[in-house]
Batch of 2 targets.
Target 1
Amino acid sequence: MKWVSKRDLLAMAALLLAALLLLFLRPAKEDGARFEVLAGGQVILSGSLKPDREFVLSGYPGVTLSIRDQRIAFTRSDCPDKTCVRTGYISGPGQVSACLPNGLVVRVVGGGGVDMVLKRAVREPHMECGRV
Amino acid sequence: MRRGKKIAFLGVLLGLMLVLSLAEGAIPPILPPFGRIGLPNIVVLYCLLCLGWREAGTMVLLKAGFAFITRGAVAGTLSLSGGLLSFGAAVLLLVCTKKRATLAALGVTGAVAHNAGQLAVFSFWAKTNVLPVYFPLMLIAGILTGFATGTVFRLTLPLLDRK
């Protein structure tokens, strides 16, 4: 079978360009952004990304969240895969970090609320998912 | 191929697939969550092109079953959705092009479909719709990794044919 055709390359280049355009049309970081913690799809906690702090979620003694320089991350978790910890810090509105075994999702939201956030952007993807 | 021999061969392929997925999991993703190269997909492509669609589909289901047993429902459904969608997309591409699709096109289609399926299931588990936010990244990662797997497959095909 053929490896690659000229048509493939053209199609891939066009799609890549379109995707990059979509990426660059979106803002990355926003002042006054907040974070929300969701358990089972419900917001159980929300707050400002200032000042720097570290806390354990009530009801989840094995999970620690840390806030640093207006960024937030799972820094400790009792889940088996630790994908949430490896995700690292997230900062831009719309970014998501999740600990699926615990059913927890942390997301950063901007001033415009959730609907605005979903239309907005991320420059770096951060979530638990990937080729399994 | 005789029945017994075929079953043994499929078993070896499944083992290869699981090892590839394990090895891939050990490397931190270049572009989380889609940075995985998708090496197991090469085995599925091989089954699809050289053995048949039934064999390829079986591989996808068995791998998802393995993920389900060893890593739980979340990993199992992620594997199943990504696997089935990329398998379906590859079959569709082959049918539409009357089997003239190139290996790179098959790899890219599979990878993009795989990412889309996993994002959808992730949205379901997290009860947060992340598809609009992650769409561009999903596309970029799918194209790059799919092209890579298609190329690796092209390089390994002559070796596999020698048997």
Note: Chain B has one domain: 3-162.
Target 2
Amino acid sequence: MDLLIARIVDGFNNGVVYGFLALALVCVYRGTGHLNLAQGEMAMFSAFIAYALHAVGFPVVLAILGAVAIGFIAGGVVERVLIRPLGHGADYSILLVTIGLFLVLNAGAGVIWGGDPLTFPAAVPSAPDDYISFFGTRLRYQQLLILAVLLVVMTALYLLFKYTRLGLAMRVTAGNPDSARLLGMRVNQINSLGWALAAAVGALVGGLISPSTTLTTGMMFNFLIYAAAAATLGGFDSPGGAVLAGIVLGVLENLIGSYISWVGSDLKQAVALVILLGVLMVRPTGLFGTKKVERV
Amino acid sequence: MPKRTPLLALVATVTAIAVTACGGAPGAEEGGSSSDNSDAASAAAEVLGIDLAECPADVTDPLPAEANVGLTLPLTGGPATAFAVLGPGAEAALEQANAEAGLDTKFNLIQKDDQFLPDKTVAAVQELIQQDEVVAMTGVTGTAAVLAIRDLLKRDCIPGVSLPGGGAGAADPDYPEVVQGATPFSLDARIWVESVNEQFPDGAKIATFIGNTESGNDYALQIDRWLEETDSKSEIVSAETIEAADAAAPSSQVTTMRNSDADVLFAAPTGAQCISVLTEAANQGWKPVTYLTTNCGSSTYLGATGPAGEGVLVVQPFKDINSPRFADDEGVAEVRAALEKYSPDADLENTTTYSGYTYAEALVEAARAAADSELGLSRLGIIVAARQLDFHSPMLVDGVDFTVDGLEDMVPIEAAELNAWSVDEGGFVQGELYDFEGQLTEQ
């Protein structure tokens, strides 16, 4: 029983990270209708910025918050400089730009910070004895912190999108920018805000998980695959759905990988994608996504 | 696998070469002749299983006054930040040879980007052979890359001297043109098993945590091989793997290994995973006797693990430039001076720079030996000389030499220290030297 709980907790911890990054993908999609494939690399780059801020003397928490602030601004700048000139309907072009951004950020981080893994301290005590025991499993303060921050951010985003005028404007802008513009909404600024919010959320993820992954230029690549799967599974316009799907993916892939011997660690990733495929065949908008209705 | 070259044939061929070299071969004219050289070349090639008729005709020609040497490495993409520094290191060794070795040929290093992807390595090596007419390759890194290009080298009879792939495929008697450059995984596994056999004479439960890569597969095979060949009483009770790109802490794998009650961990993951598996084990309160792949055996990695790295054992044939133990080492200082002089842009604080130097240094040693041999400084001369290399690089720890012997001993580095990481020392504490010279080649 203890082992089962340990495996659920292991999967849950991974799932929280998938869900957190998925939240960033949802932010961009919800705010602009675009998929940002560079989201993971933006988070990685922000984590390196947090590392640099810490290296010059900022406490860990301030370094992460500083990186979040820089990420927020950089996200807005990326939208203004790289995305906006392409026009709102240029989905494929925007997708290609995000791939280019992915490559530039990955290589750029390597040039600036080198190829060796770097360590970034946790914001809470993280010595081997810093944990809460739960049915024989160690719940580490760092993992609990990530979960708590995720819940706060998810709730804040949910409230923003659901109950504020700004959130409503973002939804309208993402769904039909032309109508939004006719209604007098400042579509460009709203798009910028969507990218900025996503980059800030990504920066938070990067800073929080880097103590356990170590800082490398490849630290977010795999997470992005799972995050994209989680966002698709949960619904690209549903913050709560994306987070829940991330957690479900994390737990299921770990349980299946652990208890079905021929799957093991080798095919865990395939498990996540099979689950994704299965759900999409039944419900193409994801478990919690909104069906898109077009006026004819 | 059957032996490919009987010892008798080796002795006969060496004798033939020696007789020819002394000008005493039947029918030989005084001072030798092209016929003698041809005979010697054929004999030397035959010993290595090379059919000269299958090689380009110029394989026995003396190298020109200037010749190109090829090196493929990631110059773009993620791995570039880790491996691009190989180039300046190799450059220094070749420039030093050009200035000091007194060879008739000056070597020019040509580097091509392969992004650390084997298919791109193949394309780059083809270009190097066909367009740049390289006379040798050096420093091509990674078991998968070496496996990908060894047929090209064999087809055109191009020596690949000191190619740092740790897998058995880089020391395969079917490919005499390829001389391994890195610490072989077979040495890691051999020393790990020997140490476990010593520490646990009644047997230990072993967990393995290995990257799901070409190198990882080789590690798994070598561990099985040596557990079996040493009649070890130890057994593998948990075999976990990890994908190369997986950056998440390997919590589920560690949970499984911990639950297996393993006393010992053999860990051969990739890059930063070396750090995360140690920290995750510590976080879960699991403290097995841990052996970590030599690929992660540097202060850069162990230093990043904090207390989790305490006592972790690593096989180390090479000196770690960042370790306090080698801060004033003469050999390291010698190589650093060469790097400063002949490759001013080289990153002197990066271990990989020194690796690049060491790989090309083996090629220079082979060229030097070839020039002194009957075959002269030709491609075949380098291939033959490289298969008889026996020298001590300044970057190897005392007691470890770069030694090969024809097809009988294909693995150059077969001895190493097993050192434990000390958090207090901020470096590795010198441990026992294990020497398996001549024992690791798979026949």
Note: Chain A touches chain B at residues 3, 6-7, 10-11, 13-14, 17, 106-107, 110-111, 114-119, 127-128, 131, 138, 140, 212-214, 216-223, 254, 257-258, 264-266, 269 (CB under 8 Å).
